[in-house]
Design brief:
The protein has a single domain (3-201), classed as Mur-like, catalytic domain (UDP-N-acetylmuramoyl-L-alanine:D-glutamate ligase, 3-Layer(aba) Sandwich). The strands form 2 sheets. A 7-stranded mixed beta sheet has the order 3-2-4-1-5-6-7, with helices on both faces. The chain contains 6 helices and 10 strands, in the order αβαββββαβαββββαα. The protein is α/β, with parallel strands linked by helices and 206 residues long. α5 crosses α6 (194-201).
């Protein structure tokens, strides 16, 4: 365990821990969660790998926030002891730690298996390996799959759609539309309605 992980764990010990992990898209998805919760002035802490999307600081720690959002890679994700986990995708690339795809997928399976009783595990059903890991039955764990959000584009403008409603957004691309669904489903479980989510997301910056 490195010093950065130890610092986050110390700050997160008494908080509900939401861990966002995966091979790609984790920073943007975590930023969506942060943006929406900030929009509604909800108290929370966070730790992400890079600033962006209107977020200037990579960490925010406080004494009284009831939850923390942690972006974690495949090396550290298990160490945070998540209560709510989200896997964006699983895309193996050869490395000394993961010389083959089987070992890489096994690592995410271990993360999913470490979800505690009454915990939540979100996973993108559009990604075959995330689906394989996320859909595995786990005792007293609620697995929630999500798919790419319906969307459309018109003359260079991008929208997500909900029924007949079109909500303008500043981001586009299949990964981002998947992330939107993941963020929406997770936030719904901590008290942000779909209408609230769409209102806040329309102001999410590039």
């Amino acid at each position: 365990m490195n010093s950065s992980t130890e610092t986050i764990l110390k700050q997160a010990a008494d908080k509900q821990r939401i861990v966002v992990t995966g091979s790609r898209g984790t920073t943007t998805l975590a930023a969506m969660l942060i943006h929406v919760l900030n929009y509604y002035k909800r108290p929370f802490d966070y730790s992400i790998s890079a600033a962006g999307h209107g977020i200037s600081e990579t960490n925010r720690f406080s004494a009284n926030a009831p939850l923390i959002i942690i972006e974690a890679d495949e090396h550290s994700m298990i160490e945070f002891g998540h209560h709510i986990g989200l896997i964006t995708n699983i895309m193996w690339a050869e490395s000394p730690e993961f010389p083959n795809a089987e070992e890489y997928v096994k690592r995410f399976d271990q993360f999913a298996d470490s979800t505690p009783k009454a915990g939540l595990l979100f996973y993108c059903e559009n990604d075959p390996l995330a689906l394989l890991v996320g859909a595995k039955p786990r005792t007293d764990v609620l697995g929630v799959g999500y798919k790419i959000h319906p969307h459309t584009s018109e003359v260079g403008n991008h929208f997500i759609t909900s029924g007949k409603e079109k909500i303008p957004v500043n981001i586009f691309g299949s990964q981002n539309f998947q992330n939107i669904s993941g963020a929406k489903e997770l936030l719904k479980r901590i008290g942000i309605t779909a209408d609230q989510f769409y209102k806040a997301l329309s102001t999410f910056p590039l």
